[in-house]
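Much of our argument rests on the idea that a fold can be written as discrete symbols. Part of our work consisted of pairing the sequence of a single chain with a tokenised description of its backbone. We regard such an encoding as a compact summary of how the chain folds. The amino acid sequence and the backbone structure tokens for this protein are reproduced below.
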Amino acid sequence: MAAPHLNRRHRLRWLSLRIWLRRMAFWAGAIAIGLVATLFTYGANAAMAAFQRGVDSYVWLPLVATPITLALVAALTRRYFPGAEGSGIPQAIAALKMADGAQRARVLSLRIALGKMLLTWLGLLGGASVGREGPTVQVGAAILHTLYRKLRYPGRLPERALIVAGGAAGVAAAFNTPLAGIVFAIEEMARSFEEKTSGTLITAVILAGLAAVYVQGNYTYFGVTHATLAGGQGWLAVLLMGLLGGALGGLFSRLLLAYGRAGLPGRAGRYLRGHPVVFAGICGLALALLGMVSAHSVFGTGYDEARALLENKHDIPPYYGLLKLLATLMSFVSGIPGGIFSPSLAVGAGLGADVAMLLPDVAPGAIIVLGMAAYFAGVVQAPITAFVIVMEMTDNQDMLVPMMLVSLLATAVSRSVCRQPVYKAMAEQFLTRRVTAPSVRDEPSSAR
């Protein structure tokens, strides 16, 4: 039986106005993540639609607009929003490891969050092959971290817990996948599950998800497919997609990390490291050429193309998966803000569609779902997040066991190609750069 003074203290806590105000502020912050994620979605869709209208009118437009846009975004990022480049997930993970509170506050500031959104929109307006989900993780973490700093939460609600909860809420609101948001936080961000902060995590995910659903409606990200596997060829598809998705996902991650560590080799590499805006423009030109070869299908997040493949529409080129992989690589190494979540799922859908042509007795939708889970697991090496997020985004529980198997196989294959999980390794690279190199704001004016 609890001591009387402990029961009295517990009752006083429930009656404390200060505690209730802090709780309500936290709830408001989680709801704000859902609303901001919705705004991010609408802005991204509008940017991609505007780019598509331009391409429909002038087929050569990407050859001009895409290099200029990527160079402009890279310049703005370096000049005004250092720390906003890339996905956003490595920054959130790096913030969890930072001992310097001031440095953490710079990475998770609302200014950087706003810059992340604006520059991602601008990149999509120019045809960049990037996603908004990774940036939403950094934005969500920034919102709850700012709340922590403003309200001075007590030790029972640690700063680290709010960063993880904000990132998870961002995933849940961006994809309308609450379970995947929780799993992502445990498997990818925190890599552990702390019982005392589990309520914070789940509450943030639920409130952010409800806010997003209230505005956008209850939807499945890639539509609904009830395709299932049957017969020996079905399990052959699991094997093929696990091997292919894991190998290509691991290769993609290895290329990202190799460029992040050393850049391009030789004299050309040294020149481009000294002229990053020029390099971003060259990446934009390469992306534009890939777009011309692919009938303009590799631009943007890949959402429409993946959905079209799941719905068995035939206006997507058969080599879409590989071209989308290269387009995403060019966009990411250019140094602009933008994530790899949606583009990776689109690459997986394209690879699945290619393998489906080799296995005519298996439902194409089932193989495409396997491809999405396999390639995504190969890239991030987070198998539970991979199959949970694809299951929720396609509302296909019947494929749960095959998706589990293909995700585990792809992760194992990917680790033989790329030893480090990509987000963890990029977080370490980000931390190293922050320690060894001054930020743009700290540089003398002559170096800007």
About this structure: Residues 22-216 form a domain with the Clc chloride channel fold (CATH 1.10.3080.10).
